[in-house]
Design brief:
This protein has strands at residues 6-8, 14-16, 27-36, 41-46, 52-56, 61-65, 71-76, 81-86, 92-96, 99-103, 109-112, 121-126, 132-136, 141-145, 151-155, 168-174, 179-184, 189-193, 199-204, 218-224, 230-235, 240-245, 251-256, 269-275, 280-285, 288-296. By secondary structure, the protein is mostly beta strands. Strands 1, 2, 3, 24, 25 and 26 form a six-stranded antiparallel β-sheet that branches. It has a four-stranded antiparallel β-sheet with strand order 4-5-6-7, with no helix packed on it.
């Protein structure tokens, strides 16, 4: 396994996700670094200690990084590695060739998923009960296993209808709805199922189109719950990550990335992972993993100015035999009301040292800026 030689670490301009409306709902993405060079980074996972595992097919294994970005070694895997996931009890699950295996974090093989004939196992996910789901791209199915790895059932078949697949590649559990998201790559969509495999809904269409809520070659999905439930979908053909607000009806929020090789640009993003501990979005792309800080756009309401003081009352005239009452003093004018200014959303900033190599390990850096595109 080749040790990554450097980490790209260069602060650049903040990327406000582009969309013609609902700007107050948009998070902001700021490129804060990249792990590189990896040879062919694919799907990613974090364990409970926030060790990052990156499946790297050309390195024939899973590369590990610490929270400071330090290289922690690798888990050698025979054959072509396709995906990696971590269970709640910190077992590492790796799909490769026609097998899916459990490993310890140090790389010791524990067991294999059994009872199902894999052809091309890919994305892996775990539900809150510990059950394990594996997408098989060639069989066009999702297989369900017990926490110990025994086969339970499978659902799906090749096709374009609801609950059918054409080369599913990635899985993620959406905890608000309690549903499994399946990236149906060649059908250009993301389908949702309950824990038993019953179809619930779909985002996207088999027609290969670009634009909001449409995908051309989706390969990775992840969720965040900082402000409601949001979905990130990596689209390798469109060279971007689409951000979608989930709800009764999905709502397009914007894009992260643009085609290119400069810092922050994307070539063929194939997976995306949201780190809730630091609000960072990791995007596996080409020979590197881009790291974006995700922050909520500030939306401050204008405050009302204070009311001016009331003028003093005029003194009472002296009393004579028929003395008149002195006139009442005029009332002071009301103070002006000045609405507080609206503070624009500030650029996302790095809140912790995660994914950063010490300065001495930073071998090079490239300047650049993020490009935002509307559709």
């Amino acid at each position: 396994m080749t040790r990554p030689q450097s980490i790209l670490w260069k602060a650049v301009l903040a990327l406000a996700l582009c969309t013609p409306a609902h700007a107050a709902d948009l998070p902001q993405a700021t490129l804060i670094g990249a792990l590189e060079p990896l040879r062919a980074p694919g799907q990613m996972a974090l364990d409970s200690n926030r060790v990052l595992y990156v499946a790297d097919a050309q390195n024939r294994g899973v590369v590990k990084f610490g929270t400071d970005g330090s290289y922690l070694g690798a888990i050698p895997v025979s054959g072509v590695v396709r995906s990696v996931a971590c269970t709640a009890d910190d077992r590492v699950i790796v799909s490769h060739d026609s097998s899916v295996d459990f490993y310890t974090p140090s790389g010791t093989v524990l067991a294999s998923l059994s009872g199902y004939g894999f052809l091309s196992p890919s994305g892996i996910a775990e539900d809150p009960a510990g059950n394990i789901y594996v997408a098989d791209s060639k069989r066009n199915q999702v297989a369900l296993f017990t926490p110990s790895g025994a086969f339970v059932s499978a659902f799906g078949a090749k096709g374009t209808g609801a609950g059918e697949f054409n080369y599913p590649t990635d899985l993620a559990w959406e905890k608000v709805s309690g549903q499994l998201a399946v990236v149906d790559t060649l059908n250009n969509r993301v389908q949702f199922f309950d824990a038993s495999g019953a179809f619930k809904r779909v985002i996207g269409t088999p027609a290969a189109l670009s634009g909001p809520l449409r995908f051309t070659y989706p390969q990775g999905v992840s969720f965040d719950y900082v402000s409601g439930a949001r979905m990130f979908v990596a689209d390798a053909f469109q060279s971007s990550v689409q951000v979608i607000e989930l709800g009764a009806l999905p709502r397009f929020l914007g894009y992260i990335g643009n085609f290119g090789t400069a810092s922050g640009e994307l070539r063929r993003p194939c997976d995306v992972l949201f780190d809730a501990a630091t609000s960072e979005l990791l995007v596996s792309d080409g020979g590197r993993v881009n790291i974006y800080g995700i922050t909520e756009a500030a939306a401050a309401d204008g405050s009302t100015g204070s009311t001016g003081s009331t003028g003093s009352t005029g003194s009472t005239g002296s009393t004579g035999s028929t003395g008149s009452t002195g006139s009442t003093g005029s009332t002071g004018s009301t103070g002006s009301t000045t609405g507080g200014s609206v503070t624009p959303g500030t650029a996302g900033s790095k809140q912790s040292a995660s994914w950063q190599y010490p300065a001495g390990d930073c071998r090079h850096a490239r300047a650049g800026s993020l490009v935002c595109r509307e559709r």
